[in-house]
Amino acid sequence: MPSIDPEKLNRFVTAMLAPLSSYFTDPGQRVYWAYLVGALLLAAAVGLIRTEQRGARSLLGWLFPRSVWFHPSSFLDVKLMFAKAPIKAFVFVPVAGSSFGLALWVVARLDRYLGVPEPSALSPTTISLLYTVVLFLGWDASRFLLHSLAHRIPALWELHKVHHSAQVMTPFTLFRAHPVESFLFMLRGVLVTGVLTGVFFHLFRTEALQYEFVGVNALGFVLNLVGGNLRHSHVRLCYPRWLEYVLISPAQHQIHHSRDPSHHHRNCGAWLAVWDWLAGTLILSSEARPRAFGLPTKDLNHSPSGLMSALLRPLLGIARVWQTARPTDLSRTG
Ligand SMILES: [Zn+2]
Ligand SMILES: [Zn+2]
After folding, report:
1. Contact 171, 232 (CB under 8 A)
2. Helix (H) or strand (E) holding 327
3. pLDDT tens, 246-263?
4. Which has the closest alpha carbon to 226: 32, 45, 42, 25?
């Protein structure tokens, strides 16, 4: 049996654990510590102002109920976070790095087919502002599109059921996604960033720097800070009615997680509500209130608290979907 090189083993373990620590120290991650603190402060404010949500419970008891944080469904969220760390280290991170290469490829293609444009009259400040907004819109629209497809395409829905089987929600429910679905969302990010950055480089011939706070898109940073993590929680935070047509409130995403199947395919937006509004899938927090989170038993394709079940059974679900689709297709063509 070949001996194990301790140096190699150390590098392997460090690489595997890096994504776990970066979840909390990287401002590009939703569970960055500052966003969690922001969510906690906001939740405390909701608990103090909307005392009817809290009932007779103390503020601390209401913020961290055992029935939520120690629920087997919550444990699966954390298990998935650990299980996906090595996949993130060895697959996601290298692929994510390819968006710069894609941007260069896009610039080269555009230069070749459209020619190099004249220098722009726009100031670097205007270009940076434009790039920040366009990148934010591109990211948000593409997330809405892929999320909507995950609800409409049966094979993708089999994967997306892992996110929707959560019976209770904490900020860690963010990690509750099948690795294949996470990979698709990551590829989408690479494509959108690569193509949009390439177009900006081509048009303006300048480092199209975006406005950033601690290295992330300024708009995403602000929205994450003011409650991005409350969407996956028991804290019902509604926005004023007019604002819920513009931004998805935590309460609106909670409706998306309602056990009532008629709510599953509504409010697919990440930040902006306008995409749902345009698509006719928007539902305001005043129009529905989830009685329970999760999927009806007949829709479940895995155990809501089992790791191996959540990883493997959705794949069997896809195989079933393809098998049942085949005879229908044959009868159509025949
Ligand atoms: Zn969700
Ligand atoms: Zn969904």
Report:
1. yes
2. helix 307-333
3. 999 999 999 999 998 888
4. 42
Helices 218-225 and 124-152 pack at an angle, to 10 degrees, of: 60
Distance 281 CA to ligand 1 centre (A): 16
Q: Please tell me the distance between residue 251's alpha carbon and the centre of ligand 1 in angstroms.
A: 11
Interval between CA 183 and ligand 1 midpoint (Å): 16
Distance 20 CA to ligand 1 centre (A): 20
293 touches 166 (CB < 8 A)? yes
Sign of CA dihedral 212, 217, 221, 223: positive
List of residues 6+ apart from 49 with CB closer than 8 A = none
> What is the distance in A from the centroid of ligand 1 to the CA of 126?
34
Confidence band of 332 (pLDDT split at 50, 70, 90) = very low
Prediction pTM value: 0.85
CA 150 to each of CA 32, 184, 269: distance values in angstroms, whole numbers, following the listed order: 26, 10, 12
Looking at all shown ligands, the one closest to residue 77's CA atom is: 1
Task: Note the ligand closest to the C-alpha atom of 228.
Answer: 1
Q: How many CB atoms lie within 10 A of CB 44?
A: 15
Of the listed ligands, the closest to the CA of 290 is 1
The DSSP secondary-structure symbol of 177 reads S
Q: Is 247 helix (H, G, I), strand (E, B) or coil?
A: strand
Taking the centre of ligand 1 as the mean of its atom positions, its distance from the CA of residue 164, in whole angstroms, is 7
Tell me the longest C-alpha to C-alpha distance in the chain: 68
CB 160 within 8 A of CB 152: no
What is the identity of the amino acid at 129? Answer: L
pLDDT at 223: 78
**Higher-confidence residue: 216 or 23?**
23
Note every long-range contact of 308-315, with CB atoms under 8 Å and residues 24 or more positions apart, other chains counting: 310/76, 310/80, 310/162, 310/165, 310/178, 311/83, 311/178, 311/179, 314/158, 314/159, 314/161, 314/162, 314/178, 315/158, 315/180
SS3 of 212-230? EECCEEHHHHHHHHCCHHH
Q: Tell me the mean pLDDT in the region 267-271.
A: 93
Q: Which two tokens stand for residue 207?
A: 């480092």
